[in-house]
Amino acid sequence: MIKLSILYPNKPGxxxxxxYYVATHIPLAIRxxxxxxxxxxxxxxxxxxxxxxxxxxHGGCQFYxxxxxxxxxxxxxxxxxxxxxxxxxxxVAPLIQFNDIKLSELPRQKTGA
Length: 113
What we know:
Layout: E1 2-9, H1 18-33, E2 39-44, E3 57-65, H2 68-85, E4 95-100
Antiparallel strand pairs: 1-3, 1-4, 2-3
């Protein structure tokens, strides 16, 4: 499985509307990529390494696909609409990277009381 990471640098004076990103842009992306999309996550930057330090990124998202070919199967039809939506929530260019997932473990939620 691969992970497509899209991160938005927190540059001084930059704009990022997380509410729009979560409520509108990501649902649009999910709808356009759903044929081969395995899952997605959205992250919002909290802080840098020191308390009170601004985060390096406003946030970003991860899209999971079986492989790069699965992404390329859906991207051409989705690209124009998704790229045209970017100015509605940010004025920074995203950093994009494909990753090969080598290990993934999520914390288990406690059940019961």
